[in-house]
Amino acid sequence: MTDDAPGRRRPGRPAQLSRDLIVEAVSQADNVDTLTMRELAARLDVSHGALYRWVKNRDELFDLVSEVVVDRVLERAGAEDQQLRPWLTRLAWAVHDEFLALPGYATHLSRPHRHNAHSIDRLRTVVTTGLRRADVPADLADHSWQIFITCVVSWLAATENPLHLSASTPRFDLFLDTLVRGLPAREPGAPRP
């Protein structure tokens, strides 16, 4: 086997860390929610100190992961179009696929914790802007965003926890169809659009 053969490290400095390498290593964990910084450093084959130069703690690690996940979600959902409900459906499926690709991520997000304001605000802004373009008043656009993200993340977190998942849990496509048909939020008693 030569020094260039796959699976064998070359002597010298280890490969530099990058945002993508860190997120790739996180994605290979059994459960993102319980992954420790030491375990992640070992997965990356770097010292604990080298990892801490990138992310100082688990909160910063989740911030970094959230940035990448939101980038991927927005790229997969595509540009917001004139048809609000089909776009919200694409966005929700992108959230579904990207969040579940990181086991434990939705569970982590569903519990109270310090969210990455930048990433979450990017997602919120895109959704509320789309709702506002559909002539939804600002306050109801914000309520619609909260309903949308809370429902989707809660459903995903439930699927990650087999104790909460049951045969009566609706399939994501059924759940999503019902959720999206109910959006945007409207004042009680107001007619459906």
Structure characteristics:
193 residues; Tetracycline Repressor, domain 2; transcription; disordered N terminus; DNA-binding; 61% helix; transcription regulation; elongated; mainly alpha
CATH homologous superfamily of the domain at 66-181?
Answer: Tetracycline Repressor, domain 2
**What is the name of the CATH class of the domain at 66-181?**
Mainly Alpha
Number of DSSP helices?
A: 9
- Write down the CATH topology of the domain at 66-181: Tetracycline Repressor, domain 2
SSE order: HHHHHHHHH
Low-confidence runs: 1-14
How would you sum up the major sheet? none
Tell me the total number of β-strands: 0
The general outline is elongated
Counting helices, strands and paired strands, the structural category is: mainly alpha
The average pLDDT score comes to 85
Helix content: 55-70%
Between the first and last Cα atoms, what is the distance in angstroms?
67 Å
* SS strand fraction: under 5%
- CATH architecture call of the domain at 66-181: Orthogonal Bundle
Radius of gyration: 20 Å
GO molecular function: DNA-binding transcription factor activity; transcription cis-regulatory region binding
Organism: Actinokineospora bangkokensis
Keywords: DNA-binding, Transcription, Transcription regulation
Protein name: TetR family transcriptional regulator
